[in-house]
Amino acid sequence: MKTEIKKIDATIREMNVEVSGDIVKNKFEDVFTRISKEAKVAGFRPGHAPRDILEKHYGSRAHEQVIKELVPDIYYEAIQKEGLNVVDYPEISDVKLERERLVFKAKFEISPEIEVKDYKGIKVNSKEIRVEADEIKRTLDSLKESRNRDVADDSLAKSLGYPNLAGLEKAVEKQIFLQKDSVERERVENALIEHLLKDLNFKTPASMVNRHLQDLVRQSKVNLAMKGLAREKIEEQEDALSKELRPAAEKQVRVYLVLAAIAKKENIPLNDHMSRSVVEFLLREADWNVGD
Question: 286 vs 187, 191, 291, CA distance in Å?
Fold first, then answer.
């Protein structure tokens, strides 16, 4: 196999591929063998028509089938050989097939090379989580009103499945703490990610952004449908949704690529949980300052 890579820009590559010899010849033999088993040629039983007759009647079909089967396999082998991290389907062009030679061009987008530095020991300022008495009281008052109770007492607590008011207050305090902790954790994680992105300059692959944008638009349309908006009204908003959500799609793809680059350096598996695993790693390695 011969490959030649041409750099179009930071993420677009064009690859010329050429293979010859047995790999092409054997594919033709395999295709003609399969065709002969079902070919209907006057004067011959299936599987017994001479090769020259088959080529006369089915040569064009065999040619198309060889291209259909061989190009994807050769393309995949070529990108593996070149060690390319391709992020989208290729544009195949200039395909030329002879009996023992196949050449074609493949244009595709790759993930950018991102050199992430100084991602350990990032300074993180976190607020100490406190639950104030008036926060507990407001929640209890809300529960009292929702149950049409004149007071928050043991009776209210028992109606909600708690042994007494003290037990209910403790549960409310824990719930408020967890909510505030979740909000603070999200704030810290966002600040950490913003720090990572701040000094990085790389081209975001358009194909990844477009795919993610489609997912965001699709989910937004589902949300609108669940709110009762008519289908035709939802479709009318698709262009506006795409425009509105594109910045978010691009940023989320950039975040993913940066986290993936860190995962690669730290030997963190690139699976569905990669982003979460990398964030947890960064939080463990951060320089924490917890204050009011």
Answer: 14, 12, 15
**What's the pLDDT tens digit per position in 76-122?**
999 999 999 999 999 999 999 998 999 999 999 999 999 998 999 99
The values of phi and psi at residue 109, to 5°, are: -110, 140
Sequence letter at residue 150: D
Round to whole Å and give the CA distance between 200 and 211.
23
pTM score over 0.85 = no
Laid out side by side, the sheet with 12-20 consists of 2-7, 12-20, 101-109, 91-98
Q: How far is CA 229 from CA 114, 162, 215, 223, 243, in A?
A: 42, 41, 19, 9, 20
**DSSP annotation of 12:** E
Nearest alpha carbon to residue 244 among 213, 218, 223: 213
What distance in Å separates the CA atoms of residue 252 and residue 119, rounded to the nearest whole number? 18
Walk me through the domains of the chain, giving residue ranges and CATH numbers.
2-109 (3.30.70.1050), 123-291 (no CATH)
- Pairing type for strands 2-7 and 12-20 reads antiparallel
